[in-house]
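Study this:
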Amino acid sequence: MRFRPVFYIINGWPTIEKTKEMVDNYVAHGVCALQFDMPSADPSRESEFIQERMRSARNLYGSGYEVYMDALREIRKKHPNLEIHLVLYPDVIETIGLERFGDFCKEIEVYSVLAMDPEIMRYLNGRGIATATFIGYDTSEKAIELAKANDNQIVFLSNKNGRTEPRPGLTTWKERVAYIRKAGVKAPVFGVTGISTAEELNEVKQAGADGAYIGTIMMKLWDREPELWKTLDAFQQIAE
């Protein structure tokens, strides 16, 4: 599959209908991969931007998750070729139930699930559902071994974040992608963390990654659509 950016969408903000409308618009602009969440009651590790919008969605739709699952079912039905990635929070899986969530992932044919709990990851992997594993900016050997240990996953390769130092000779995207590939990582590799311009996205592409995750930068432009589509088109030109 060709290199693709994966754009993040907060499911249910500002409304479910707006979520579905924006998915249609993204796809019309050539987007082939999107990452969705289902709003958590405790998104304390997320930015204030995400926390506020999750609270807004939960205030509007309550604490259940069927409404978000139904929205994703509709999105899948309308866009059968869209690559769907999910973010999974602990309280969300507790509410839905692990087996039911696994059934749902199979039903809508998710590409990957970002889940922090190793037991949840093992369960999903056992059902043929890919999960995400991280290799940080320090490109640790332990993280590389974990990325090699399971064929049913994707790899998030993190950019510099101000908290960790790189290993000597592993400071660029190209150096790190080449290193982990040489070390035996065969899973799809996606660049993550702080990719906010088309130029930065192109660095990830030229490094040989399979794709890159684009976070809230796009959603912050939802109320300025001309700027949003201009920015999105610039990202999409890199993917082509």
